[in-house]
Here is the input.
Amino acid sequence: MLVIPRLHPYAFHDLCRRGGAKGGLYVLLFFSGFILTAQERESDKKIVVDSLPVPSEPNQLFYLQRDPDANTVVYQLNTVDGKVDAGKPVNVFWIRYAEGGMRKDLNFVQRTMAYGITHKTLGNGDFELQLAAYKKHPLRLAYCGKMETYRVYTSIKGREAVLDRIFVRIDGGSIFSPNITYFELIGRDTATGKPVSERIKPDQ
Here is the structure.
């Protein structure tokens, strides 16, 4: 079944305000979700965040980056004939910048334990999303009339925000238990349109 985008009822300023997931990623990404292959893990290497590439894929919703390299997970709106595919509203894939920029599908472990997304149709053109790494705090995919496209909404610094990016700082640890120093949510306040970000420590 294909879902026709509908005008979001809470348009405000240049963005859309959206109730829903509160703290949708606050405890995400420091459990087994960050299992990486041995080839991906150089546990002492730290990325200079400002040097990371910024993906700009068609229908991009948000993206995720982490130590130890520039490889990036992209979350992309999945459409068929201009309409959201209700059976699979979000595509998730790597851009392997450290390997020449090739695109690559997630493997089974990455898809089921880390970066994959499941969804539930809410019946009003919106979708509840759950990242595989932590399912207790869903995100919401909703249509924004002002921006004329779908966006993913979450809470950043207690403010409702459109999610643009997640960055995860890893400081050593093992392949199966990386030491997460913090993860950072970056987005735009739906009320003001201004950038908003928050660093979350695992013990918060």
Q: What stands out?
A: The chain has one domain: 2-37+60-200. Helices lie at 108-114. The mean pLDDT is 79. The longest strand covers residues 159-173.
